[in-house]
Amino acid sequence: MTEANRRNFLKGGAAAVATGMAGCVGSLTGGGSDKLKLGAVQPLTGFIARMGNVGKEAQDVWVKHVNEQGGVEVNGSKREVDLIVYDDELKSEKTRSLAKKLATTDNVAGIIAAWSTSGALAMQSVVEDNELPTIATAQTVKINHPGSYMLRIIPSTAGDPYPLLKGVASARDDITSLGVLGREGNASQDMRDFVDYWTKNVDTSLGWKDLGTFPFGQDDFSSFISKAKNMHANGEIDALLMYVTGGNAINFLTQAERNGLNDEMPILMPSAMTDFTEISKIGAGLKNVHAASSYRPLNYLDNPDVKQNVPQSGIDALKEYKSLGGPEDPIGYIHFIQARMMADAITDAGSTDGPAIRDHLVGKTRSTVVGDMTLNDSGQAALPSMVVTFTTGSSLGIDSVEWHGTIPPITNIPPETQL
Amino acid sequence: MSIAQNVINGLIQGSLYALFAASFTIIFGVMDIPNMAHGAMFAVGAYVFYQVYEILALPWFVALACSIVVVGALGAAIERGFLDRLYGRDDSEYVFGVILVTFGLGLIIERFIGQFWGYDNLVIEMPLLQDHAFLVAGVSVTLAQIVIILFGVGSFAFLYWFSNHTLMGHSLRAIVQDRELAYMKGIDVERVFLYTFVLGSAMISIAGVLYGTMFTLSPDMGFNLLIKSFIIVILGGIGSIFGAGIAGFGLGMYEAFAIAYLDSYYIFASEFLLLIAYVLLKSIVTDAETPILTKLLAYGRSQ
Amino acid sequence: MSDTTTATDRDDTAVSREVSLDWPRLGKQTLLFLVVGLLFTPLVAGSSYIGSFVLIILVFAVMISGFDVMFGWANLYVFCPATFALIGGVTSALLADTVGAPFLLSMVAGALLAALVGLLIAVAVVVIGTDFDIVIATLAFGEVMILLFNNWEPVGPTGIFSISKPAIASIVLESQTQQYLFLLVVVTLTILAVSVFTSSRLGTLVVAMGENEALLASLGYNPARYKFLTIAFGAFLLGLGGALYAHVNGIITPRDFGVHQTLFFVLILMIGGLRSRYGPLVGAIVMVTLPEIARTFGLGNIRPYIVGTFLIVVVMYMPRGIVGATPGTVNIGSFITKLKIWES
Questions:
Q1: Distance between CA atoms of A185 and A188, rounded to whole angstroms?
Q2: How far is the alpha carbon of A86 from chain C, nearest alpha carbon, in Å?
Q3: Fewer CB within 10 Å, N or C, chain A?
Q4: Is C107 inside a domain boundary?
Q5: Average pLDDT of chain A?
């Protein structure tokens, strides 16, 4: 499907949406005698424990809500959901053996949470061998292939910088050379490779320079900031594309702003930063930051520019989510959607058979809090996204929406899909 | 790129290393205790300050005092409860035992911090230190950074004074040189070690508080600095406080210049290579009586 | 003087029994081990989940046997065992998947390359001499290797994934049960190799070197030689284990084989017992199943407390581990006797 067709499809909006997020109406006496088992692997301890715990919380909220309504409808009868959650401590061998446990001993119908690149790669063979539909929040480009049972509703490491390249770097005349800086690891490596591809094939008037990588625990960025400023003074770069996550983003941006970097050039940050970081702690550092995000804008619906880019169905769904007590955090939204999507697919399939569920996850457009989303045959969602700028000072919020559109389901570098 | 800029950056980065490495020097460099829990204690200092200052909204000096007391007490408990029992063991078993025990303690402390305060990055709001900044050679230097630089230099100066000009410092050096002799001379070895360890703990808690006002808090915030401090203390020469001070700021300078001029990929690897080279060269130089080839090949009956 | 002579005379017969390789006894023990292992097959076949961590246990048993050789038996404080495993694993994975080499060949090649690197480390160990500096240098070496692998295209920070399963000639060991049987044989052979090594004359000299290097040297032996042999042998086993890990786990990431992993190895060895051939296996069983058991009781996230407490308790109260031998068992008197017997 070309991108244009897909866009029409989404714009049309009337596509076959299953139960949607309106919740199911069911008789309270319904429900099958055996429970519907679903699995989740969350990093409840370790570096990203906060994220794992938020994800778990959101899914617990969903389970409670669904069970109060009698459960998920499967083939005519309602079955209560039993969500089995394991802590993989972010270790790949644990992720693998836990996936095995869920697939074989616990016999779950689907896995609705899994994290990290190495975790996803470790569990991949288990998931594929057992034909177990799995929705993971791992951005690596290496788990996608046609027919894959590993699915995701966040952009891949290549899809992540897309809105920034398309909507900012290539769109603005004053940006001709991007400086790329990232934290060590595969994500920034993929980002570099994608930027390289983009500058050589999609927009040849744009160039880029490699500013290097910093290790995981780096807190002081003064040297990197000086380097960026100097390269700007030399005319080598006029914007910064930065891959950083968590607390590092807070540290980097506050230091950058103090050193005047934000005044000199736009700082572009992909969704991995914005969807998974507490923006309120950054404050003045958000000046001249252009952030790509699919889920974060939902926290700022009071901004009319943002609101107009979220379909009404999404706004209603968000209201419902909040009324259920779900954590107001993009990770929460993501995990809630993952749970609901799996349940809807099971209902549509009318069974807990892996391939059948997959058929109803892939290629089907589903209505979610961020809008309509479709997963392609390699398991990647074409995701609505926005690039936003921020207001700083006493009222921290979104200033304007610089770009909005859909991130194509980029699953490889070089990409196999139209950009 | 201006040299001055790099020097300032190096000073900032180096002071962070010195901040941590100073207390580590007295504990590891002088007392020979490779305290792998030092990073966790650093974090405890920061988190206690956060709890008292941000959550309980008490004045900063109260919060600081709490940090020092808590970490000092923790240090005392570790020294009395665990390290004390390991002192009697023979050399390699001792070093090795200390590394494992303190590593285990570090794991437990870190996990506890994560459970109690969560793994999210916490921020300490201290406008006085964070918002006042000066431009030096085009680099913005905040009051917090200046305080850290002063503290970094100051703690090494303090340790130097302590080691050379106080009774306790002299006793410490005597013990480290020859424990048996020190005992016989009437030095209360247990007391000196305990007090020094607690001193080191107090220093690292202050370091944690200062670091926390500059950056975000996370349970594993001390880990990287701990690794760097190992390198610093060894390169500076075990036992040499002055050497460690130079090495701390030197490492910061090295990184600042390297990031500016080289591909950052290999900078951090080069630090470890430097360490390996140093250790190898040291052995070759100091053991000159037995040339390497002899060690490797010779000695009669090789069957 | 006369006391020593009497002691030596009394020890003679006992020692001579130890000193010659008791092949029949060794053979019986090996067979027994194999049979016991086979008895566990239904357990593995019955549950994919249990099977997966049993395989990990066996892989660790091989790796840590290698570590025990250099660390437990020879007292060489080589703190980069995880690095040897990583080298073995990466080599094997690349040979098998990029070049298409047969699995057994790749596995052995990985082990040999690890052994070669081990020799280099051994040279450094000999040059450095002091225990503490060796710890520092080898730890630093481990970090450098990880950073190098992270920046090397074929591996990268993600590591190598989708690694092919183990295979014997053209028969791919698809199922966990098949892999279990294969690993059982490998572990048996590993333990046998370690037993032969440590009971042989070579092994005795190695242990003596670990206990009292100066004395060994004064008797005319070159300690350096034994360090080379030990570290190379230990690294070989570690590389072998690493290759097995890569093909059984399907993925191998450099970051997973750093300081934390080395400390985990140390912990397994200390719990299982140093200088004991079944020690590595026992330690691996304990350290891998304990968190799983805790998990079944819903105590998943107290693992750091378990590991931390274990580390402390073992060091404070059981320095030689659960199954391990006590240090200094090779006393010089009996050692000299052994030597005399070998020489005659």
A1: 6
A2: 8
A3: N
A4: yes
A5: 84
